[in-house]
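Exercise: predict the fold of this chain.
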Amino acid sequence: MAATVTRLSLVAALLMLAAPAAVDAQHTGKVYRIGYMSIPSRESAGNLMDRVFLPALRQRGLVEGKNLLIEWRWAEGKPERLPGFAAELVALNVDLIVAPQSDSALAAKRATRTIPIVHVLSGEPVADGLVASLAHPGGNVTGLTSTPGAEIYGKLLELLKEATGASRVAVLWNPARDSPTIQLGLRQLKAAAPILGVQLQVFKASGPEQFEPAFAAMAQGRTNAL
């Protein structure tokens, strides 16, 4: 379901960003340059790029190598590379920056107030500082969110307790991908846990090499659910 939501959201975001550009490109012969900066590797995002992103652009009349040039920037799981990517894309004066995650969109926003930025699935755009409000976002950032608000994290914990009866629940998060929404979500989880009679265990993993130790610690701590 998550993959389906992501793909639908990406298509919807692309329809927002590509419609006017497609009309201009067809009539003026202009070659548009889009910057794409994202946290994962090209390999891990390949299916989404090849089956959704590029076909959606082609459907709107934007074809890579013809009237479209895409400046790809992949952080390979290292969020600290995002500010550098943003600076590069701004220096190239791209027409648009696609920054799928909250942290990539924030890095782009800090680098430019004029180039349009589209995020695909942010955490909570108001709390993260991407927009002023959902009704009147203002600025140069637009896109979609999958989160109605940080309070959803407490509800998720409640649903997990109802479904599994778990009394010890682990939370795995990446401190390198810190944001106001994540911090608020962690606070919501910690506030909801004692009310639900749940012992919360928080584990960190800043990269794939830290997954195995984190899961081993969960098993040692007799975690019932994640």
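Check your answer against the key: Confidence is low (pLDDT under 50) at residues 1-9.
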